């Protein structure tokens, strides 16, 4: 029933063939495992990056502490010529660079989008702390952002488009701040139907 192999050379050839097959199987398994490990590492890195970006898009928002406007009754009709916002970090937000923050105005005069700047020609970022860096790094940091609307303002060319954005009594305006991470904060400006002072809370 069983054949006894007496030839030693034949016995060795069978063993080498088995060894070659075994080594080939180990190599194939190692290559497959390497591919799986690399793929898993790439997917993990991509998932972590996506999670961080998604978290930043939700949490790295600005908070509008207060908003007001400067009313010019010398114009006919009288209108808001400048908007002032006091901004802070939202709870849980990381550092927010205001110079990389875009602003969108939507109102009866249409839509304007621009980026806040820190140039010396009338742009409006003023930090309420020692150094005038336009970056909010702490929840206690505050910044005043000024947006000029009338055609005589030097802010018009840098901020609210190349032409005046008229905001008269009784009108409203939606302002959206979008940080570099894509997080948005929207506030609505409502001008009273009757304005009795030069500075009005909106």
Question: Could you give the topology of this structure?
Answer:
Blueprint lengths: L7 H52 L2 E11 L6 E11 L6 E2 L4 E6 L2 E6 L8 E4 L7 E2 L6 E6 L6 H4 L13 E7 L5 E7 L8 E3 L1
Antiparallel strand pairs: 1-2, 1-11, 2-8, 3-7, 4-5, 4-9, 6-8, 9-10
Can you walk through the features of this model?
The structure is a single chain. By secondary structure, the protein is of the alpha+beta class. It folds into two domains: 8-59; 60-201, Immunoglobulin-like (Sandwich), CATH 2.60.40.3580. Helix content is 28%, strand content 32%. A hairpin with a 6-residue loop joins strand 1 and strand 2. Mean pLDDT is 77; it is low at 154-162.
Briefly summarize what is shown.
The protein has 202 residues and is of the alpha+beta class. 28% of the residues lie in helices and 32% in strands. β9 and β10 form a beta hairpin.
The fold-level CATH name of the largest domain is Immunoglobulin-like
* Shape type: rod-shaped
Strands, total number: 11
CATH architecture of the largest domain, please? Sandwich
Mean pLDDT: 77
Kindly state the percentage of residues in helix. Answer: 25-40%
Share in β-strands: 25-35%
Structural class: alpha+beta
Characterize the main sheet.
5 strands, antiparallel
Look at the structure and give the CATH class of the largest domain.
Answer: Mainly Beta
User: Treating each run of at least 4 consecutive H or I residues as one helix, how many helices?
Assistant: 2
Low-confidence runs of at least 5 consecutive residues: 154-162
Separation, N- and C-terminal Cα atoms? 103 Å
Q: Can you tell me the number of structural domains?
A: 2
Radius of gyration: 33 Å
Spatial order of strands in the largest sheet: 6-8-2-1-11
Query: H/E series, N to C?
Result: HEEEEEEEEHEEE
């Amino acid at each position: 029933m069983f054949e006894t192999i007496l030839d030693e050379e034949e016995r060795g050839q069978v063993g080498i063939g088995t060894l070659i097959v075994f080594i080939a199987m180990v190599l194939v398994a190692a290559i497959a495992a390497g591919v799986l490990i690399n793929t898993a590492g790439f997917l993990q890195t991509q998932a972590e990056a996506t999670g961080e970006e998604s978290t930043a898009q939700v949490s790295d928002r600005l908070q509008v502490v207060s908003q007001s406007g400067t009313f010019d009754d010398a114009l006919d009709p009288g209108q808001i010529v400048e908007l002032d916002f006091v901004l802070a970090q939202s709870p849980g937000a990381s550092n927010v660079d205001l110079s990389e923050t875009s602003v969108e105005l939507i109102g009866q005069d249409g839509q304007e989008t621009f980026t806040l700047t820190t140039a010396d020609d009338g742009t409006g970022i003023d930090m309420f702390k020692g150094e005038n860096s336009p970056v909010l790094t702490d929840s206690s940091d505050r910044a005043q952002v000024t947006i000029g609307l009338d055609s005589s303002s030097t802010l018009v060319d840098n901020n609210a488009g190349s032409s005046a954005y008229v905001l008269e009594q009784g009108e409203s305006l939606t302002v959206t701040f979008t940080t570099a991470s894509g997080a948005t904060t929207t506030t609505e400006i409502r001008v009273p139907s009757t304005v009795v002072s030069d500075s009005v809370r909106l």
